[in-house]
Amino acid sequence: MSSKKFKVPSSARRHIKIEQFTQFVSSSRLRHVQSVIAKKDNMDGILCLAGIDSRYNEGSLELLNYLLFGFFDVRKDELEKSGFAEEVIDDLMILVCREHAEIYCNPVNYHYLLPYVSHWPSVQFHCLADNEYEGEDDDASEEFKIKSLIAMVSNCKVIGIPYSGRAGVLSKSSAPFNPMAVEKWPIIQAFALEDFGGGGFFTLKHEVCDVSQELYRIYNYQDPVTMEILLTEHFPLMSRQWENMMKCVQIALTEPVSPLLPAKKIAEPLKSYFNHGLVGQKGREGRKPFVLVDSEADKKQLRRVQAGEDCGDPTDVKLDALSTHTVMCQAVSPHSPLVCARTYFLTSHPYKILTGNGGQQESSSSHLDLRSAQITIYSAFCLSDLCLFFA
């Protein structure tokens, strides 16, 4: 490390910008991860390695961000301005066991991490003192890290690895987990060196299994912090794209002559928002955005899009004064379980809704066909509000 002395960051709670963060919520996330271990009779712990030590493994990063409330994303700008190298901030290993947790870090990122983990029950730190740490390039620091890993897993026979991120879990094309892929990680390769007494190759001494699928389920659990992020970050983005879609509809309806409902153009904001969020992630299963118009909005087609199938671009529809048109839309957030689904009816003959008579609803027409009845119901209960569903 450079001889320049950097200011040690404060570990005060005020540096965590999440308003709903509490020690209780933080400990509950740790317990959720521990519950994954408890459900597997033979598993002793889940090991999570950050940065170059795991070749920047996506699954490990997601678990760290879950336990540390997005530390490596939310505080990215702050960390870049700190003056410390990325390798120093990423110098982190966490082993979660049934009744305790062990953390390896360095004297620099220790001060950043402390407010996130200091309240964890039975937490143990492996960290050099300030006067002993000389940075990532120092042999003594590297030796201490390797010995810390060996000590952390010494009592573990079966170790879970969060190998795949959300995209890998949801992908149809993901290859089966191969424990030998973990052996290629730098810190795991160093584990086998005779000088440190690790006892041979990591995957021969310890049984390694993938717990990505089990962890993916707990990532979707709702807690106060999750709701805060949904409402302050993900919801405004999805709502903005929905507004862009509705502007396209409004423009089409104001055309004076032979108005055309451009279904492909209407769907573009929702699909672009979703696809842009999944750049670099292929083969994802699950809900996808769609727009279905008139004859395309039948039960068979709806089941296909709900299953995540790509049904191509919707067909443009010519509007006329005598017809009523059905438009079914769904927006999906690419990085959260937030989904919005709506059905709209476009008609040149609006039906007036009257309330009264003991709460009964009346229509200006006494003989309504099925489509008219649908318009009445949706006008009364749905069109004024945005409906949200969690996948």
Provide keyphrases for this structure:
single chain; 391 residues; Creatine Amidinohydrolase, Chain A, domain 1; 2 domains; 6-stranded mixed beta sheet; 4-stranded antiparallel beta sheet; 38% helix; 16% strand; disordered N terminus; disordered C terminus; DNAAF9
Which stretches are poorly predicted, pLDDT < 50 over at least 5 residues?
Answer: 1-6, 357-368, 381-391
Sheet with the most strands: spatial strand order = 4-3-2-1-5-6
- Biggest sheet character: 6 strands, mixed
CA radius of gyration: 27 Å
Q: What structural class do the secondary elements suggest?
A: alpha+beta
Q: What's the helix count?
A: 15
Identify the CATH architecture of the largest domain. 3-Layer(aba) Sandwich
Roughly what percent helix? 25-40%
As for the number of domains, it is 2
- Please report the first level of CATH classification, the CATH class of the largest domain: Alpha Beta
Kindly report how far apart the N and C termini lie.
47 Å
Order of SSEs:
HEHHHHEEHEHEHHHEHHEHEHEEEEEHE
| CATH fourth-tier homologous superfamily of the largest domain | Creatinase/prolidase N-terminal domain
Q: Approximately how much beta-strand content do the residues carry?
A: 15-25%
Q: What does the overall shape look like?
A: elongated
Oligomer: single chain
Mean pLDDT: 80
Number of strands: 14
Pfam families: DAAF9_N (PF23281), PB_DAAF9 (PF25203)
Domain DAAF9 N-terminal: 9-220
Domain DAAF9 pita-bread-like: 223-372
InterPro entries: DAAF9_N, DNAAF9, PB_DAAF9
